Each structure stands twice: as C-alpha cells, then as structure tokens.
Amino acid sequence: MKCFDLTGKVAIITGGNGGLGLGIAKGLASEGCAVALVGRNQEKIDKAVAEMKEVGATAIGVQADVSKEDDVNRMVAETVEQLGRVDILFNNAAISWGVAPEKLTIEDWDQFIAIDLTSCFLCSKAVHPEMVKVGGGKIINVGSAITQKAMGKLVHYAAAKGGMDHMTQSLALAWGKDNIQVNAILPGLVHTEMMPCFGENKIGPVVDYITKKTPVGRYGMPDDFEGLSLVLSSDASKFITGSIIVADGGMTLGI
What is the pTM of this model? Predict the structure, then answer.
C-alpha cells in the first residue's frame, strides 16, 4: 500500500544498534527507508550496520552520546551529509535498572534524566529544521508502559518516561504547523540486551510473572514493533499526532 511506502525517506534511530531500535530499523528498511543507526558503542554500531546491509538496506552508523547537545548536532549533520535529509526520528535510546528511591543518588538521577528524557528534547530540536526543509516529518518517542503503572524501584525511570509522554503531546501541538507529527509508543516487557527475557542473563522470575499475567501470554520481541513503527513513520498516520500508544500485549491490564 502506498500509504506505508518510505522510499526516499531517511530515519534516525537512537539506540539503533541493537534490541528494539534495530528491530524498528529493519521494519522501516523493509519499506525502502534509509536509516542512521545511532549509539555509543562503535563495535555494536558496525555490527548492526553490517546486519542491515546484508538484507539490502541503506544504513549508516553514527557514534554519539545523545544526552550531549554537541554530539546530537553532529549526529544530525552527519546523517544529512551522508543520506541527504531527515524525515523520521525515533527517540529510542535509554537506560534502565531498578533501585529503591531512598538509595538513589543524585548522580544516578541526573544520568537517567539526561539519557532517557533530555536526549529526546535535544534530538527533536536538532531535527526540526531538517524536517521543515523537506516539508514535514515524523517523531516517534519510545517510552514505557511503566508510566501506566507504579513501581517503587523505578521512580527515576518512570519520571523520565512520564516526562517524555507529556513532551510528546506538547511537541505535537508546537510543530503541527510544520506538518510534523509527534507520537509515542509505550512498550511493555520486551526481550532486549537491557531486559533479557530468556537465556543465561534472564532478568529473573519477574519475566515469568509478567508473562503469566499478560493477556497475549508472552513477552515482546523487537520485531513486534515493526508494523506499528511503519504506521507512525508513514503517511498512514498523517492524521495522528500527540498520541500515546501502549504496545504491551495487554501487560498493564493484567498486572
């Protein structure tokens, strides 16, 4: 269907060198989109780019710390230099681990806010003029279904992701005049390097508990987000903006 066609489009995906970000990149590439995979680990970036090129995708890697404005501006400039434009941004880079709030240091708090929230603002601001140049764009913020629940050891993470939700709506309002649609996806439990759901590094009995309580009866995989990512990146969503879309297999209904 033409409304999903991304031929000639260029997407930046932060945290695109693995896990959910790489899954999103594969989905976009399947419809002709060129992708810039952004991360901090150059070895992982190179491996991800090679994996994309093996399936015939146009992909580049950009090493950057997206919590730093200079890195973000360079990341956008390199993407435009190599791929010619920016149409789509996925703010996907994040860190996560649990800690009791009374034990949380201000250094850890600042790190979470910088990487999980400030980066979203910096990247969105940096791509805005490039999207204006091409007549519009799509910004998709990858949040977390944790904002629909309360978990005592994820106060810092919930604060950052909750801020992302409201930033999504405010950016949608601010940039609607520029034909830029801004939406958020809230995944639940998804198997990634950060949250391994099987294998020797499995995060523990919480996986089995959540899986049992989730209506679909399983945790998510990165490829579960390819379809939704295509919708929000393409003309299929030209009348959708400011939306917060929970994509958790029904997890938040069951726990």
Answer: 0.95
